[in-house]
Amino acid sequence: MLHLKNYIDGAFVEAHDGQTLEDINPANGQVIATIPRSKSSDVESAAVAAKKAQSGWNATPMAERITWLETIADALESKHEQIAQAESLDTGKPISLARRVDASRSVENFRFFASFAREQKEMTFEMKDAMNYVHRNGLGVVGLITPWNLPLYLLSWKVAPALLMGNAIVAKPSEMTPLTANILAETLDELNLPSGVFNLVHGLGPEVGQGILEHPSINGISFTGGTATGRIVAATAAPMFKKLSLELGGKNATIVLDDADMQQAVDGAVRAAFTNSGQVCLCGSRILVQARIAEEFNAAFVKAVSSMKIGAPGDEESQIGTVISMEHLNKVESYIDLAMEEGGTILTGGTRAMTGRLGPDHNGAYLAPTVVAGLSHLSRCATEEIFGPVVTIHTFETLQEATEMANATEYGLAGSIWTADTAKGKALAQTIDTGIVWVNTWLHRDLRTPFGGVKNSGVGREGGQWSMGFFSETTNICVKDQN
Ligand code: NDP
């Protein structure tokens, strides 16, 4: 069993009071590791170290910081398999997914921000008698708080631009998935990143997370997590005038028009609904199908879903592993019960998978991918974020109706539209209140583009220049001509 430590001021240390938490394997209930159960005094140590290190890091020329990002990318790439194995173990996701998505993207995040920064030119505005130069400094010390679904993928998405722009970091991963954040800390330590520039404090949200939010030396918070937690983050940080980026929940619509390529739409809808057991904020958890093709689509969709291979996370063939924990499994199942109460019909799934079939894995949080039909698009199951392998399926007649249904939730993160007519798809996309819409694809990401949500899905955008903007303060320097 592993025993992880905090990484503060360039050293691996226990929590001040020595308390620990257990990190549980969702596939069998066994303890993988213990981690420090840190408190605000540990956050204090991390914030002091970060503050001390930040000015030196900010003064490091941008070109050197870019080289740092490239060096980190190379080092993480050499640990690609280690990262994938750790992520699969911690989250219960299939190893093939952890390799393809989590490990690869964690490397790419560092590489992308390095190459993107190399392309940037100094921003200037010329006047008749003066020149304006827009200079960017790091925000200072930033707090990075991340969830369990895509642990290193999301942490590195924040760490890379934060380092690039000259910030020092106090990071808190979810206590349910601490392994890969620890690998990142080990990597930065091996590379001799200056002490205090990156600090990692393990523990619980209401203890460590809250400590980060409240710390007066932490100037900005980049938070990815649930909407309810996002409210607490905003309520705590906003009165202190901290810069805030909130990437929150989603209840995204997959809209299938009656001219769509059937096979492409089915494959896309399955991927959007069940990647990572539906535990991606971008997952298409509501499928809206145009009436003329609904019967054919639903039959093909259910057939594809019921043939997905559920299996142990480490099995190379598995397409669906576990959800994050038994507690989360219970929450997702309560929504299946609610769907029944709300008048829904289960077309496939709805049951715990693997139970009794896996021997030692009998405690695993396996849930079969579940499709529910017959619910109102205004029902709780069709409007609340379930964040598991459960999708509801609904029918619409006109495009206006599709828009109204898609917009009938408090969320507005993402969505996808499937149609043979891409102009129609693009026009429909403009009527959906959401931060991202894909047409005939899903989770097709260009890291230069703005990423974020509207309504209760968040505040602000990350990606490319948006991340660089968030993690910096600008000073306009106006120099008057002297002749
Ligand atoms: P949570 O909101 O429960 O937790 C997110 C992080 O916040 C965790 O590190 C958590 O710590 C911490 N936290 C909890 N309470 C506090 C607090 N009072 N102060 C500060 N930090 C706190 O989300 P989940 O981990 O359950 O992740 C799932 C959610 O994340 C879903 O709603 C999903 O949609 C959303 N998400 C959004 C994305 C986006 O880009 N919009 C991307 C991925 C996920 P701890 O784990 O210890 O409780």
What does this molecule look like?
The chain has helices at residues 40-59, 62-77, 80-91, 95-119, 151-164, 179-190, 205-214, 227-237, 262-274, 291-306, 326-341, 380-383, 399-406, 422-429, 464-470; strands at 2-3, 6-8, 11-13, 20-24, 31-36, 123-126, 130-138, 141-145, 168-172, 198-200, 218-224, 243-247, 252-256, 284-290, 345-348, 370-373, 390-396, 411-412, 415-418, 438-439, 454-455, 458-459, 472-480. It is an alpha/beta fold and 483 residues long. The chain folds into 2 domains: 2-248 and 457-478, 3-Layer(aba) Sandwich (Aldehyde Dehydrogenase, Chain A, domain 1); 253-446, Aldehyde Dehydrogenase, Chain A, domain 2. It has a 7-stranded mixed beta sheet, sandwiched between helices. The chain binds NADPH dihydro-nicotinamide-adenine-dinucleotide phosphate (NDP). The site of NADPH dihydro-nicotinamide-adenine-dinucleotide phosphate has 31 residues, from α7 and α8. Residues 145-149, 172, 174-176, 204-206, 209-210, 213, 224-226, 229, 232-233, 247-250, 281, 385, 387, 413, 453, 458 line the site of NADPH dihydro-nicotinamide-adenine-dinucleotide phosphate (NDP).
Count of domains? 2
Structural class based on helices, strands and sheet pairing: alpha/beta
The Cα radius of gyration reads 23 Å
For the largest sheet, list the strands in their spatial order. 15-16-17-14-13-19-20
Count of separate DSSP helical elements: 15
**What is the CATH level 1 assignment of the largest domain?**
Alpha Beta
